[in-house]
Amino acid sequence: RRRRAATSRPERVWPNGIIPYMISGNFSGSQRAIFRQAMRHWEKHTCVTFIERTTEESYIVFTYRPCGCCSYVGRRGGGPQAISIGKNCDKFGIVVHELGHVIGFWHEHTRPDRDEHVSIVRDNIQAGQEYNFLKMEPDEVDSLGEVYDFDSIMHYARNTFSRGIFLDTILPRYDVNGVRPAIGQRTKLSKGDISQACKLYKCARCGESLQESTGNFSSPGFPIGYSAYSHCVWRISVTPGEKIVLNFTSMDLFRSHLCWYDYVEVRDGFWRKAPLRGRFCGDALPDTIVSTDSRLWVEFRSSSSWVGKGFSAVYEAVCGGEVERDHGQIQSPNYPDDYQSNKMCVWRITVPESFNVGLSFQSFELLFTAIKPLSSLSTTIPGLQIEKHDSCAYDYVEVRDGGSGSDPLLGRFCGYDKPGDLKSSSNKLWLKFVSDGSVNKAGFAASFFKEMDECSRPDRGHCEQRCLNTLGSYRCACDPGYELAADRRSCQTAACGGFITSLNGSLNTPDWPGDYPPNKNCVWQLVAPTQYRITLLFDGFETEGNDVCKYDFVEVRSGMSSDSQLHGRFCGAERPDAITSLHNNLRIEFKSDNTVSKKGFKAHFFSDIDECSKANGGCQHECVNTFGSYTCQCRSGFMLHDNKQDCKEAGCDHVVSSVSGTISSPNWPDRYPSKKACTWSLSTTPGHRIKIVFNEVDMETHLECAYDHLEIFDGKDDRTPTLGRFCGTKKPAAVVSSSNKMFLRFLSDNSVQKRGFEASYRAECGGNLKAGVETKDLYSHAQFGDNNYPGGSDCLWVITAEKGYGVEMIFQVFEIEEEADCGYDYVELYDGTDVKCPRLGRYCGSGAPEDVYSAGDAIVLKFHSDDSISRKGFHARYTSTKFQDTLHASK
Fold first, then answer.
1. I need a labelling partner for 553 at 20 to 30 A (CA). Which of 252, 468, 727, 802 fits?
2. Which helix (H) or strand (E) holds 100?
3. For residue 494, is pLDDT > 80?
């Protein structure tokens, strides 16, 4: 037998298979969703259970360590232990792999007998990574009768820690079923992984983990009858925020006092010691059981020789209801997988009196719709996805300040932006989730907790002027013209700064034009009337610092707070460009440290009316101000609604035939949506090529661009040769097609979302063309017929026919700047594959050359224009033909 690499130390096995966990706050909502999907994958196929940590002493923490992707093997005990999910590790299969270490698995290839199954190519291993290929000692590994598993999710791939992507570090030594086995899959648990984990944690031999929203199960052999000494466990787990309704549909078990021998037992929780809801035997059907949370434990045992039919049961997950707790989780049905259609869930959350309810979204993804928060308590930050449409009419989350649907609305949310933290004004909060029958997304995950408003106390947090409440805390602030004293509670008069409402004016640093004092913090808040924008112009500028602006600096923001939209942080001696506010207010902050002082700055400002400054002109995406009016525009991947203001998610397949332009990932320059597939089919004038130049690239990084990426194909679709697959943040070199067609495909997965890419394209003249039986066209320039050819052109076409055939070319239109020797603009033809071959002629003027036939299988056409006079250009047709006895000579 070939042993597997599982721990042999019992203290490393988690008691009862229960693994408490925490997730560090630096992970995004989509990353948290992947972690939960991976944990549910282990739960689905084994009897291991992951629970959010409360008071448990030993638990795992999802975090980011310098090791990248790594974890302690098994339970360490005595406190928290890290499972590191570093850069590029936040993929489902990789997290499942790292959780395998947590559960108690070593890497498969480190087993003591691994040399019987794989070969290690040590010369190809990266320097410093050799320790990852060491064998375990026999006393560290227990096989439990399982064979070596090439398909294990714990097995390295062929090139793991390789010095080069095409160099192998580990190879199977023999064939399995006639083929050399693949290794290193990161898709799902193998049969061997499941069997090994079930043996390691002594899982019941029958029963299963049930995670669907509805289901049924029954005792073994039902309805024929169960055998003696059976033991089965069913673990029902639904989405947090849902409850389980369990109904027994048949019951025929041996009846005994207190159901001592044969029984089915239901517990309200995740394990065998959860509160007992009932132990049943005999033939009486139990009453309906409703869980208090999202898990139920159902256990069946038989010990008598009497055989009954057994039992059968059905369950259903129901969302919403009364939630009376200090804290907890609420998620959309089926989260983190896509929610179902036509769902409506209403939660009424209640915390103890004298507290408020705080609500914080970790992840949000509903069908993409317009977001219109209705309270100052709600803000939007990147990371939310729900179906998006006008006023969130289809799929949405609605939050109200109280315990009913008629209480004040805090906000209705949908789309891709995660709502900001919300807080009720009482101890009750009402939350509603609705989905329609169309597009489904991943939904949302939120946590709720009891929250106290420290600023509502009589002492107002001991703040002298302003108390700003935050979820879980508060901070003091001062009015414009004042600054916080050293105690961070009281305020003192500032030597600079202030609140300014005039339409124009000037401001400067203290002591201008002399040196400013050290340790100063000045804040000016400029406020103009609604529908005005403020323009700031610097007349003089000189501060300490360089490009980093680490010491003394001036910071300009659109808004009134220190976290408003940043225009720039400036320092040094270079005067900043003019800055125009996004709205009707502008915040200028100056800070100096205690070292070098310079002159500072002097600036003036003025205000001007702007229709876009009021509610973005009613535009959902971009409002473009024009003289006396404005227009609304949508970002890539969206189209303007019929109301000319809102944007709706559009198809992501683009057909582009313009000569030049810009393409970008959906929602650029903001983060692209998850699980998006977009294509661009570019075509240009026959005889021309397409050139792509990248302006910005910001996609998820991976060595092979296996996750989020842009792929470019040299032709009309993705079946043509690839010109490159791109990801990460490094701008690729320009990409040029070989014909007048190019196909681009952008894919994003469900984990990391970044800004994406922006690229410019344009038609390029010249290239290699194939002459065939069908007649093809060739034009002097891409905008032939619309504009004259551009100056400064130098184009070279090589037209080739099949071997045994020649090339025939006939000019349909010919209008080139005329000159006696064709010295300015001209067309040259060569009989061969380059300009060193015999020249057939140089042509210009308005008379078309005679028909041209090659002596061989190729013709070169060269077109040159200088930078002065231009004309219409030329249009030629070419085809392959049988060789002719005569050639066209110079005209």
1. 468
2. helix 92-103
3. no
Please tell me if the domain spanning 206-319 has the same topology as the one spanning 767-881.
yes
Q: Does domain 653-765 have CATH number 2.60.120.290?
A: yes
The amino acid occupying position 592 is S
Q: Does domain 206-319 have CATH number 2.60.120.290?
A: yes
Quote the distance between the C-alpha of residue 481 and its chain's center: 42
847: pLDDT confidence band, cut at 50, 70 and 90?
Answer: confident
Q: For 719-765, what is each residue's pLDDT tens digit?
A: 999 999 999 999 999 999 988 899 999 999 888 889 999 999 999 89
Give 270-276's long-range contacts (Cβ < 8 A, gap of 24+). Answer: 270/18, 270/49, 270/51, 270/235, 270/237, 270/295, 270/297, 271/16, 271/18, 271/49, 271/297, 272/16, 272/233, 272/297, 272/299
Q: Residue ranges of the domains in the chain?
A: 6-200, 206-319, 321-451, 455-493, 498-609, 613-649, 653-765, 767-881
- pLDDT for residue 5: 63
pLDDT in tens, 790-806: 888 889 999 999 888 88
Homologous superfamily in CATH for domain 613-649: Laminin (2.10.25.10)
Q: How confident is the model at residue 767 (pLDDT cuts 50, 70, 90)?
A: confident
3 state DSSP class of 137: coil
Overall average pLDDT of the 451-461 stretch: 84
Which helix (H) or strand (E) element contains residue 315? strand 310-319
Calpha distance 37→490 (Å, rounded): 49
- Residues labelled catalytic: 98
Cα(887)–Cα(831) distance, rounded to whole angstroms?
A: 9
Alpha-carbon Rg for the chain in angstroms: 35
pLDDT of 379 over the 50 cut: no
Q: Please tell me the distance from the alpha carbon of residue 209 to that of residue 230, in angstroms, as a whole number.
A: 18
**Amino acid at the residue 621:** H
Alpha-helical runs (H) found in 142-228: 191-200
Domain 767-881, CATH among 2.40.50.100, 2.60.120.290, 2.40.50.140, 3.20.20.10: 2.60.120.290
Residues 359/422, Cβ–Cβ less than 8 Å: yes
CATH topology of domain 498-609: Jelly Rolls (2.60.120)
| pTM metric for this prediction | 0.63
How far the first Cα of the chain sits from its last, in Å, is 87
Extract the annotated binding site for Zn(2+): 97, 101, 107
C-beta separation of 583 from 595 below 8 A: no
What lies within 8 Å, CB to CB, of 703 at 6+ separation is 165
Q: Which of 368, 363, 364, 365 minimizes the C-alpha distance to 387?
A: 368
User: Which of 301, 297, 328 is closest to 17 using CA atoms?
Assistant: 297
Place of tokens 């059905």: 314
The sign one gets for the Cα dihedral 34, 38, 44, 47 is negative
